[in-house]
């Protein structure tokens, strides 16, 4: 008798489970994620996140918007939200996150953050952009930095460049050698955000971290209009002679491909470029070298990708949002993702064991710069000033790089852009 009751109970439970199972399958949780990770290395990294969620039963609906640094993605996002149809989540960075926070359209991640102890493990420099009014509204996935040079070791050897350039003069001398040996010295893509990425490297190398902070974060008029800024533009003119004639409009990953393929010696680019080298099965120290932009050693100009969830009136979707945010902060995921993406984890407690030499250096540099107060937000990637000023800076830098205004005019235009 007892046995029968037990049997009945077991089959009743099984029936309930099956029914629940079917129910769950019918209302499968899903996320629609807007992002700009369309290059080979970026897509490979994104797959780590997709796979993670799919394992948890959350379907991934992709909304990729191509275009480095995410300008096009942010335009597409605004259109979606304005038409009353926001995605579940969107990749975002820096001041854009705070802007959306101000509009009150994004979900509160505070309970999840508190449960996960995010306050203790995410560096304060990032938290500044993850919180609005003291509440978490974004889940940080990485720490990228923009002050890197990527070099083809074979090209350098052929050109007789035997040592890593440590300062401006050594860099220019090395690039000259590469050019004279018949290669393109610097693989560059003439798009405003890439010009600005190059510019901020030159700015830090020329004026140091205090100059950079005063000019491009605090927008101090005197510093912006100073002879140092003029020197930065003069140096941009020097670099202009070291890029090839077809640079205009080129995508950043195409430029990375020129270094990977042995056409060019160097690329000055954030460490998402490493994702391209890794994706092409290249190995640091053997095929390519990574080093801090000469003159910026000890300083890190960072930008961090974060995911922001939009307020939705759907319990299943909300549950999926929480799963997505939770997955992003999970230490094992942070390691697996950033190994592929080229960045450092957004948490300080992730071991560097799985990372290659450049990744280990990235993690160490961020920790040291954070201690030394030399971890500063990237202007080119939305971590120094709001988008309106950033875009005005882009405009001046690009016009100067294309020879439309001279050094002096560029200095004045930059200072005036900061006042608007
Ligand atoms: C983002 C990276 C991205 C790069 C190129 C940067 O602003 O932080 O994640 O790979 O742009 O699109």
Notable features of this structure?
420 residues, globular, 2 domains, binds beta-D-glucopyranose, five-stranded mixed β-sheet, D-Maltodextrin-Binding Protein, domain 2
Please tell me about this protein's structure.
It is a single chain. The protein starts with a helix and ends with a helix. Helices cover 55% and strands 13% of the residues. Helix 10 (192-217) packs antiparallel against helix 12, helix 10 crosses helix 18 and helix 18 (387-401) packs antiparallel against helix 19 (407-419). The chain has helices spanning 2-26, 40-55, 71-82, 95-103, 110-116, 118-121, 124-130, 153-159, 168-180, 192-217, 221-224, 227-240, 252-260, 273-279, 315-329, 331-341, 357-372, 387-401, 407-419; strands spanning 30-35, 59-64, 89-92, 131-132, 135-136, 138-140, 144-145, 148-152, 184-186, 264-268, 288-292, 300-303, 306-309, 375-377. A five-stranded mixed sheet has the order 2-1-3-13-6, sandwiched between helices. It has a four-stranded mixed sheet with strand order 9-10-8-11. It has a three-stranded mixed sheet with strand order 7-12-14. It has 19 helices and 14 strands. It is of the alpha/beta class. The relative contact order is 0.17. Bound molecules: beta-D-glucopyranose (BGC).
């Amino acid at each position: 008798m007892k046995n029968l009751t037990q049997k009945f109970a077991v089959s009743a439970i099984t029936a309930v489970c099956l029914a629940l199972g079917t129910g769950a399958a019918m209302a499968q949780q899903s996320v629609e994620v807007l992002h700009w990770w369309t290059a080979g290395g970026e897509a490979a990294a994104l797959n780590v996140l997709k796979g993670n969620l799919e394992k948890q039963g959350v379907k991934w609906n992709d909304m990729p918007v191509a275009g480095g640094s995410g300008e096009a993605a942010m335009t597409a996002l605004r259109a979606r939200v304005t038409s009353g149809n926001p995605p579940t989540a969107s990749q975002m960075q820096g001041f854009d996150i705070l802007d959306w926070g101000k509009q009150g359209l994004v979900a509160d991640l505070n309970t999840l953050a508190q449960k996960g102890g995010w306050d203790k493990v995410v560096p304060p420099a990032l938290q500044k952009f993850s919180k609005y009014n003291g509440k978490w509204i974004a889940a940080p996935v990485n720490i990228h930095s923009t002050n890197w040079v990527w070099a083809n070791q074979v090209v350098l050897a052929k050109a007789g460049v035997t040592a890593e350039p440590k300062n401006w003069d050594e860099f220019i001398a090395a690039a000259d050698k590469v050019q004279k040996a018949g290669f393109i010295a610097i693989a560059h893509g003439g798009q405003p955000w890439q010009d600005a990425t190059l510019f901020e490297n030159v700015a830090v190398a020329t004026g140091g971290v205090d100059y950079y902070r005063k000019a491009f974060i605090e927008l101090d008029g005197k510093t912006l209009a100073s002879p140092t800024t003029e020197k930065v533009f003069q140096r941009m003119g020097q670099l202009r002679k070291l890029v090839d004639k077809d640079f205009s409009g080129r995508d950043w990953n195409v430029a990375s491909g020129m270094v990977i393929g042995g056409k060019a010696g160097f690329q000055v680019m954030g460490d998402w470029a490493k994702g391209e080298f890794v994706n092409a099965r290249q190995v640091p120290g053997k095929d390519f070298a990574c080093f801090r932009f000469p003159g910026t050693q000890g300083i890190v100009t960072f930008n961090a990708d974060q995911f922001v969830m939009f307020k939705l009136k759907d319990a299943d979707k909300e549950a999926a949002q929480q799963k997505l945010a939770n997955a992003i902060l999970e230490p094992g995921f942070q390691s697996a993702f950033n190994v592929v993406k080229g960045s450092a984890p957004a948490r300080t407690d992730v071991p560097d064991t799985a990372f290659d030499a450049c990744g280990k250096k990235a993690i160490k540099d961020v920790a040291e710069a954070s201690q030394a107060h030399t971890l500063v937000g990237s202007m080119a990637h939305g971590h120094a000033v709001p988008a309106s000023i950033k875009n005005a800076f882009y405009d001046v830098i690009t016009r100067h790089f294309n020879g439309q205004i001279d050094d002096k005019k560029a200095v004045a235009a930059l200072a005036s852009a900061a006042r608007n």
